[in-house]
Design goal:
The complex is a heterodimer of chains A (91) and B (418).
Chain A (H helix, E strand, L loop, with lengths): L3 H22 L3 H21 L3 H26 L13
Chain B lengths: L13 H26 L4 H11 L2 H39 L32 H11 L10 H21 L14 H10 L1 H11 L3 H32 L4 H7 L3 E4 L4 E3 L8 H14 L11 H4 L9 H26 L10 E4 L2 E4 L3 H20 L7 H29 L2
Antiparallel strand pairs in B: 1-2, 3-4
The chains are: A mainly alpha (91), B mainly alpha (418).
């Protein structure tokens, strides 16, 4: 008999670890924010495995919904160049 | 309020109804397999094993779930979404006094509209939106050369999936729902809060200054208006004592003041929660990016804002799901403040022994949701767009303090009348 909760826990933890490594190694900060959102959602999933739905929903509401957006705001309001350089071939 | 009987939903339990459908389908498959097994004897034993597996508990449960989810998806998109889009196009062409979707509202085939002195057209125009959708499906899916392709393609998925998550927890009546969550209200608010990151990624990844400005504006606005929304939900919880949407509706199913002949129902919008109701509605209009708050996609200055670079069905998905978010938002407001599916008269017709509600709960709920959608449409086609700094001022300097006041009033009303 497979312990499905253990499988879910291992899968969520693996996604979380990979995503959190990608947060700090990614060159593009908006992608880093996306992976941060993935990390926070998977942490929420682990809360759900602990049968604490309230903490899960607050995690989604506060962290997954808002913290990456705040990070993006920080990025976009402080960097001089936000977009990539437009390099069109042949010009 | 004269209750002509118990309130009754048309769908007593979505999963039971779907299970009947599942058993019918699987029974048909089973009969076909039996027929094949009888016709070709060597295939008999394996086919019998297959039909045993098909009628087993596992397959029946899985297929029932799939059918239930399909039913709720088709109900939301194919019925509600198309109808509200149709209502909007009819209604705004009347407001702007022009020929809209098949000659405005004058083509409706019943009394106040079918006047002789007005231009009429045979046909209601209901399929116009289907035709538009088909047109979008045929168009090419363009990706800008300088775009971040992976992020550009993932953000419509993020937005669409977070919108569909709303449908998990939103009940359409006391029987027509997917999940009866203890924390349903919080779940819906959490699903609403997932959209800004998708919008911001959409705005950034297209690598276009219009989309970037639109995405930044959208994120700033959605963040600012989420706070009063959640504070109003907190104020409501002081009155309800529960985050379960079914409990919240049940508490509103009684008369507030009974005049004998008619009664004012105890909807939360009529009590001390009226301030919270107004703020929540305004914040919800902003959350849907409808016109007084549609600066993120101001078509005149930003060419549709963060959706500029999307083409084909990706644009159709983003565009249609805006209406789906409006319906979901209106359904949430109706559930929280306007009595949900409770209504004045519930009578039943007995066909044999099976009671069939004449005015089912779904009807009341739909009428309320569509009327609220019409109010939003009415507002959005009769007021001008306001500037982004004005939007943020209203959000942070007006709605947040007022929603704190609503929390205070909610707590005070709890103390005065527990």
């Amino acid at each position: 008999m497979v312990d499905w909760e253990l499988v879910a826990f291992v899968a969520l933890s693996a996604i979380e670890i990979v995503a959190s490594i990608l947060v700090v190694t990614n060159k593009r900060l908006v992608r880093a924010a996306f992976w941060l959102a993935i990390t926070l959602v998977t942490i929420g999933g682990i809360y759900l495995l602990f049968r604490s739905e309230f903490v899960f929903l607050i995690q989604i509401l506060v962290y997954a919904g808002t913290v990456p957006v705040l990070l993006l705001f920080g990025v976009m309001l402080t960097r001089r160049k936000i977009m990539d350089e437009a390099t069109v071939e042949g010009s | 309020m004269s209750h002509g009987g118990e309130s009754a939903p048309l769908v007593p339990n979505l999963f039971d109804v779907c299970k009947v459908l599942t058993l019918a389908i699987l029974g048909l498959v089973d009969a076909i397999l039996d027929g094949i097994g009888a016709a070709i004897p060597p295939l008999g034993p394996p086919l019998a094993g297959l039909s045993d597996f098909l009628l087993g508990n596992f397959v029946v449960t899985v297929v029932t779930w799939i059918i239930a989810m399909t039913v709720i998806l088709l109900w939301a998109t194919l019925f509600n979404l198309l109808t509200v889009m149709w209502l909007e196009r009819k209604f705004y062409s009347r407001i702007q006094d022009r020929y809209g979707i098949m000659i405005s509202i004058w083509s409706l085939p019943f009394w106040p509209f079918n006047r002789r002195d007005r231009p009429t057209h045979k046909g209601t125009g209901y399929l116009q939106n289907v035709a538009d959708g088909l047109k979008l499906l045929q168009k090419e899916n363009l990706t800008p050369a300088t775009a971040d392709a992976a992020m550009f393609h993932i953000s419509p998925v993020l937005i669409a999936s977070s919108t569909l998550m709303l449908l998990v927890a939103l009940p359409w009546s006391s029987g027509f729902y997917i999940a009866r969550l203890e924390l349903g209200l919080l779940f819906v608010l959490a699903a609403f809060s997932l959209a800004p990151i998708g919008i911001l990624i959409a705005g950034w990844s297209a690598n276009n200054k219009y989309t970037l400005i639109g995405g930044l504006r959208a994120a700033a606005m959605l963040l600012a208006y989420e706070i009063p929304m959640i504070l109003c939900a907190i104020a409501l919880v002081f009155s309800t004592g529960s985050l379960n949407l079914f409990d919240i509706v049940e508490q509103q199913e009684r008369p507030l003041i009974d005049f004998g002949l008619f009664a004012i129902p105890a909807w939360y919008a009529f009590g001390p929660q009226i301030l919270g109701f107004l703020i929540f509605t305004v914040a919800m209009v902003a959350e849907m990016e409808r016109i007084p708050f549609d600066i993120p996609e101001a078509e005149a200055e930003l060419v549709e804002g963060w959706t500029t670079e999307y083409s084909g069905m990706r644009f159709g998905l983003l565009f249609g799901f805006k209406w789906l978010r409006m319906i979901a938002g209106a359904a949430l407001i109706v559930t929280m403040y306007l009595g949900g599916w409770s209504g004045p008269v519930f009578t039943r017709l007995y066909v044999g022994n099976i009671p069939i509600p004449v005015f089912p709960e779904e009807l009341y709920f739909l009428v309320k949701v569509w009327l609220l959608c019409l109010v939003f449409i009415w507002i959005s086609w009769s007021v001008p767009r306001i500037r982004i700094d004005q939007i943020l001022q209203i959000g942070w300097k007006r709605l947040v303090p007022y929603s704190l006041l609503a929390v205070l009033i909610g707590a005070g009303s709890r103390v005065v009348r527990p």
